[in-house]
Specification:
This protein is an alpha/beta fold and 131 residues long. The chain is built from 4 helices and 4 strands; from the N terminus they run αβαβαβαβ.
Length: 131
Amino acid sequence: MSCSQPLTPEGKLADAKKRLSLPRIVVVCGSTRFVTEMNEADLQETKAGRIVVKPCVDMTSPHELWSAPAEAEAEALKGRLGDLHRAKIRLADDVLVVGDYIGDGTRAEIAYARSLGKPVRFTHPEVDPGA
């Protein structure tokens, strides 16, 4: 007679992905200054048969949602986008960090992914803060 341990939320998610025969999910992380490189990574990862999630909002580009007079709302939006990106990291099977620069935000995302046991790959391995 075997006593199986109840699945953690992470285990339930992994089990559901397996039961649904989902391909691996990769989340792209990095500075939005590398949006072109993120799009190329998306293309290459998709070509390799992976589901790709990545940042879709570049708050450094002008947009009415975060330009004056909406500047006060922009900080709240930035926080919500950060929460959403951490959810993408939890959903993903692994992380791909794009670019030859790692800022504080990306460094925090890498640390978060690693704290969850997610494999982290780099387009420029020399910038890995854990190397």
